[in-house]
Amino acid sequence: DDSEEAERTLAQALTAGVVIGIASLLALEASAGPILRTMGTSAEAFDQAEGYLRIRALAAPAVLTTSVANGAFRGLLDS
Question: Are 68 and 13 in contact (CB under 8 A)?
Answer without folding.
Answer: yes
